[in-house]
Design a protein that fits this description.
Layout: E1 5-14, H1 18-26, H2 31-34, E2 38-45, E3 48-53, E4 61-71, E5 76-83, E6 85-96, E7 99-110, H3 113-117, H4 119-147
Antiparallel strand pairs: 1-7, 2-3, 3-4, 4-5, 5-6, 6-7
């Protein structure tokens, strides 16, 4: 097993329409407004940028984000990730009853030296840290959608 390889899946459900949810997720530069752990998100151009993320644990994760797919008709946003994490992330937004279901998938290899060194003993802590971050993201997006 590669202790530095992670695959995450999170499912969020909102009472808002899919178009509104997709629009919020498509603007990564706005994530810090509603997602507390996304400390910075900047665009370099129309399809790329950087993020700085810090959750419960006292370290920042800096990634480059390069858009691979933006398909509003299918509700898919997908990006390649580089930097401290190497891999990909994808949002899939679909209608769900009178609201929206969002599936977030991420598959990454940790590249940051300190996190690689702590991979074996800290793996459960790193997974829990990610879960806390995703829970806060869901809450933040729910609040942002209600404010619209």
């Amino acid at each position: 097993m590669d202790w530095n390889h992670y695959r995450f899946v999170s499912v969020w459900v909102f009472p808002a329409p899919p178009g509104a949810v997709f629009a919020h997720l498509a603007h990564i530069e706005d994530y810090p407004r509603w997602w507390p752990q996304v400390r910075e998100a900047t665009r370099s151009d129309d399809g790329s940028g950087t993020t700085r993320i810090r959750s419960f644990l006292p370290y920042d994760v800096v990634t480059t984000v390069s858009e691979r797919r933006r398909d509003p008709a299918r509700g898919i946003l997908e990006a390649a990730l580089g930097g401290d994490l190497d891999g990909w992330a994808r949002w899939t937004v679909t209608a769900y009853g009178s609201g929206t279901r969002v599936v977030y998938e991420q598959e990454v290899e940790v590249r940051r030296a300190l996190l690689r060194a702590l991979a074996l003993p800290c793996r459960p802590v790193l997974r829990a840290n990610h879960a806390l971050m995703m829970r806060a993201g869901r809450r933040g997006l729910a609040a942002a959608l209600q404010a619209v």
